[in-house]
Amino acid sequence: MTIIKERSFYKHIFRIALPIALQNLITFLTNMMDSVMLGSADEEGVLFAAAALANQPFFILSMICFGLSGGAIVLCAQYWGKRDTESIKDIFAMVLKVSAVLSFIIGAAVLLFPEFIMSLYSNDPALVAAATDYLGIIGYIYFFFGVGNTLLCMLRSVEAVKVAVVVNLSSLFVNVFLNWVLIFGKLGMPAMGIRGAALATLIARAVEFIIIMVYFLVTDKRLKFRVRDFRRFNKTLAKDLLRHGSPVFFNELLWSLGISLQSVILGHIRYSAGDPVGANSIAGTVQQLSTIVIFGLANAAAVSIGTALGEGKREETKARADTLVVISIIVGALACGLIFLLRDPFISLYDIPDATKALARELLAVMAVITFFVSLSAFNVVGVLRGGGDTFFCLSLEMGTLWLLALPAAFLGAIVFEIPVPLVLLCMKIDEPTKAIVCWFRTRGTKWMKGLTRDRADITADT
Predict the structure, then answer these.
(1) What is the dihedral of CA 306, 310, 314, 318, to 10 degrees?
(2) Can you give the pTM of this predicted structure?
(3) Spatial CB neighbours of 329, under 8 Å, sequence gap ≥ 6
């Protein structure tokens, strides 16, 4: 194992990772403020849990965007290493068109069938009704969020990461202010409750989209992408994208569906004293806070590995991978400790029943341990292996451990044997330590390093 000692490497990693982590932190704060404000507006915790439930389809769309952009980053990071911006522009144009189509389809589905979709996640009539109200407004976000978020993620491949901070800060301020006005009825507006939270989020996402598109089409100097470039289509690169990018897309899609099914399982638990959906939402929020730096570094790792491979530096690529694995162990241990430190102060922010608070505390103990393994698997799957082009292996590993191990174990534990909810959560997350162990052995070799780029002269344009 070769550990890089040069400061320039760490500066490069953190120069990419910190803006991504800051973007994730701002997104976290936005979601947290939604939860806290809704919790304050409803002592029974119904609105809080309903919003968490209604955001599950949005979570699926987010993962689709992440999958599309992740598939693009696999290729674009290597082309960025070669400074082939024309090929990158071709890839951006093709992926954005696919994103627009999928966003429209999912958005139309949640707007046409909101009650049916929410009834899949819970059999509590009050929860379904409140979630349906929320989804009926939030569904309009899907049409422009898909394109904007996919683009924002793809820009990471060319190391354009600061714009995401500006975008998400704007969204945070708009969303929090409008939440205060519309949820509680301030400044002469009626108190709209959960519908106010949905409307505030809708407006904030619209502001996000406008800023992203102005930057991409007017301000950005790396690619100099213009409206006419959306017509680009390259047959050769489309085949490469389908071959190497589609495993990432299906990975994120199937993973998001699996995580969404976990919410379905929790939503149908009736033997728990506290609300499993609400408690899991709190636990998930704390874990999200603790993994902000983890996923910032993991995304930076993908760009770093891909760029080195694009430059043809295989020994440097291996050394970077070894170093990133060591970093993942350190960061994972810190994140685990952070959850234990934050769980009581964080839970106290929520005005929810005591039984749900007690359950959230137990779930967070499980999350703390699991987060250590999340760090190891994220650095390897999202970072090293994807950046190295080993996308089919990542797909096989993640889907095998989630769908063949974690989901069946959680279903049997919750629905058949009715084991305590913390043990159900442990079953749901058993895929993380499994992935961490497998990835450790995978990255010891070099089979995962796959150069994916072509010379521009060999790419036949087909517009």
Answers:
(1) -10
(2) 0.78
(3) 375, 376
Report CA-CA distances (Å) from 459 to 84, 89, 90, 262, 321: 12, 13, 11, 43, 30
Q: Show the tokens assigned to 451.
A: 């150069």
Q: Could you give the CA distance from residue 200 to residue 78 in angstroms, rounded to a whole number?
A: 39
460 pLDDT band (50/70/90 cuts)? low
Count of residues making up the chain: 463
Identify the DSSP state of 404: I
Which candidate, 181, 183, 177, places its Cα nearest to that of 197? 183
pLDDT tens per residue across span 330-386: 999 999 999 999 889 989 887 788 999 999 999 999 999 999 999 999 999 999 999
What are the residue ranges of helices labelled H in 311-353?
A: 314-347
Whole-number Å distance between alpha carbons of 144 and 122: 28
DSSP state of 215: I
| CA–CA separation, 409 and 403 (whole Å) | 10
Residue with tokens 């090929």: 87
Residue 43 pLDDT grade (very low, low, confident, very high; cuts 50, 70, 90): low
Query: Are 168 and 26 spatial neighbours (Cβ–Cβ below 8 Å)?
Result: yes
Cα-based distances in Å from 211 to 197, 219, 338, 359: 22, 10, 33, 40
How many other CB atoms are found less than 10 A from the CB of residue 453?
Answer: 23
Quote the tokens at residue 388: 């190295």
